[in-house]
Design a protein that fits this description.
Elements lengths: L8 H30 L3 H28 L2 H25 L4 H14 L3 H12 L3 H29 L6 H28 L1
């Protein structure tokens, strides 16, 4: 079974880093959409999330190339910091109410461009931390499972955060993204250093 790979400490560390980092992927679009929809701004929600998801998709290949050519920790640090700052900025604007649509769309673009490509970092690391090819294949299966699990966990997190305060889901998403990204960053950094 794929769960057996969790006996390997480094694989376990990377698996949970992947789960943590990917949960923000599912939380952010739902949180922003619900926060704007609760304000009666469904049109704005569509534009902001479209800008966000479009730039996540467009920025993945260039960020992946940067990761291949330069220091991964630096690139993840810069992209993660920019990502979290843009999410917190969206939260602040939503807390004030009536924010300009163009500004929210711009921040959605920035967040998407800065989305930390942790998947591109995690995927090749499985071979380095696995003891053999069989364990590598099982680690890939478990990695796929954690990726899909994040899309179940994310909506549940947002559902728990919904309350009377319209911008609370985005604040929750920003806090989750921050803690998850930096937990994953530290776990990845530790695994990379142990391989040297």
């Amino acid at each position: 079974m794929a769960i057996e790979v969790l006996r390997n400490q480094q694989i376990r560390r990377l698996a949970f880093a992947g789960l943590f980092s990917r949960s923000a992927t599912a939380v952010v679009p739902i949180a922003i959409t619900l926060s704007l929809a609760l304000e009666g701004r469904s049109r704005s929600a569509g534009f902001v999330i479209s800008a966000y998801l479009l730039t996540v998709a467009l920025s993945a290949p260039p960020l992946g190339r940067l990761l291949d050519r330069h220091n991964q920790q630096v690139i993840l640090g810069v992209s993660g910091g920019s990502y979290v700052a843009s999410l917190l900025s969206i939260s602040i604007l939503l807390s004030q109410g009536g924010s300009a649509e163009w500004l929210l769309i711009t921040l959605g673009l920035v967040a998407g461009l800065a989305y930390p490509p942790l998947g591109a970092v995690l995927r090749p690391m499985w071979r380095r931390v696995a003891d053999n090819d069989s364990q590598t294949r099982k680690a890939h299966v478990f990695d796929s499972f954690t990726e899909k699990a994040s899309f179940v966990i994310g909506p549940l997190i947002v559902a728990l955060a919904i309350g009377q305060i319209v911008w609370l889901p985005v604040v929750a998403a920003a806090v989750i993204a921050t803690s998850n990204f930096y937990a994953a960053y530290l776990l990845i950094d530790r695994s990379v250093n142990e391989q040297r």
